[in-house]
Amino acid sequence: xxxxxxxxxxxxxxxxxxxxxxxxxxxxxxxxxxxxxxxxxxxxxxxxxxxxxxxxxxxxxxxxxxxxxxxxxxxxxxxxxxxxxxxxxxxxxxxxxxxxxxxxxxxxxxxxxxxxxxxxxxxxxxxxxxxxxxxxxxxxxxxxxxxxxxxxxxxxxxxxxxxxxxxxxxxxxxxxxxxxxxxxxxxxxxxxxxxxxxxxxxxxxxxxxxxxxxxxxxxxxxxxxxxxxxxxxx
Length: 234
Description:
single chain; alpha/beta; seven-stranded mixed beta sheet; 8 helices; 28% helix; 29% strand
């Protein structure tokens, strides 16, 4: 069974609290009509921010799901293994991607989430929670205030860059692609999301007009960028 990944370049409840289009779309990907999905918010990248967790519950308690969260700042109180087994959908928040991946690897959550995905569960997230699933990312978590390549989990092939419509994001991805520091991949605007089934891109969804996602490749030494469009799924 192929799991699903929904990668938000920006948007969702944390950036657009009055526009939950992307969050509703994520929940619509749950295919068991007999029960509501158990949604686990993972706010590791924000240091388990209490405010962030509160905003998650404020949004998702209004949606057709059973929300919970996994905080890893207190290892004695956290049980990643049980969280992976007991939940259906894992929503990863934004923040410091590099530090988040370090915490996950230390407690084995990286492997647990991979096994959940391979078992058919849904992984999703915004910013750090979007790029972490790819082989590489353009991230501001390597050096504070700067954008650099970052090795990620590799569930999905290629490179991802979130907030692609913000200053410096597109330029950095292009420069790193030309220099060979990263492979081809996706630039994802705020308010845009890519939906994968297994490793196959099956949909692109936007929560505001003008938001886009792009396939960014290198052809004969030149960066080629095209808007991602997908055919309707069967």
